[in-house]
Amino acid sequence: MPFYLESYWLQIGLFAMAAAIGAIGLNLLSGGAGQLSLGHAFFLAVGAYGYAWLAGEPGPGLPAPLALVLAVCLAGVAGGVFSPVSGRVRGIYLGVATLALVFVGHHVMLNAEPVTGGYNGRSVAPFELGGFSFTSSDPELLVLGVPFGAEERLWYLALVLLAFAWFTARNILRGRPGRALAAVRDSEVAAAVMGVPVARYRSAAFVVSSMYAGLSGALIGLAFRRVVPDYFGLALSIDYLAMIVIGGLGSVAGAVAGAAFVTMLPLVMARYADVLPVVDAPGSGGSSVGPTEAARYLYGAAIILILRYAPGGLVGLFRRAPRAAPGGSGTARRAGPPDGNDPAPRHVPNAAESKESTS
Description:
By secondary structure, this protein is mainly α. It has helices at residues 7-33, 40-55, 64-88, 92-111, 113-116, 150-174, 176-186, 188-193, 198-224, 234-247, 252-271, 291-309, 313-320, 351-358, and strands at residues 122-123, 128-129, 132-133, 142-143, 146-147, 226-227. The protein has a domain at 7-232. Helices cover 64% and strands 3% of the residues.
């Protein structure tokens, strides 16, 4: 896509991929372990500000890859500090407990000026790998006649990180930890009877989800090139909950689809606000709603429709869609063995055979 799309659309895709990483982490917690968290924005902020401080000035000025890894680990440590609460509290009580993290984090971001920059935030140092800078002109790069600026370079960095996050999450859900989390989600009593340490798995899910959020926050900081406290508020946590509900709880692909929908919708509406009937362009001061508010109305309605008619989300709708037969008839094939052949008819014993087997 960097060879065909302009910078605006690349930025939209970059924000969507960054949000998808955080949505995958929240889906591991909510869809995998059945835990409700309203504090996801806090761990996004830890990752974003952690990278900005570790890689920038003032700060240690560490190499960008090391700063990125340490920022993710820092978000995991923050989740580990909170994990005793997440291991013993569940449901709406955990949601209220994590809600406190958002308000505490916002207060810290406003007052810890040497690290966060206070109300105005702080700039984010560009990512560098092996002397190659992910900026517009250092060094100048031309690929097949297409100039590769910051958006084009960060696009591929985000794509690699998203692929890594997707692969890791699928392995977690399909392996033994995923089966244990599913057992905890479905019935904690049954999981404990089967020998699953419930509190430990719930705490571990919270820590892993926090690390995903930290990686997402660092990538969002690289995309925005600046982090400010007001971005990491309660509305951002609700947006991430909307992503996993719209995409489909417990599905990695659903988290990515929901993140793309929720992230791209307000940006696309802002781009085409001039031609939409009830949407005003940003900063126009008209009587209609802005693109951000209109987008929230739309995906709020999407949540209601999905909860009512498609609880499995967008991925559930895709899986339920009938698939056409290879011949193009449009009718579903009859289920059979993996090789596609029709199963042999089962032999039904007659009355004499039944009497003989009984005797």
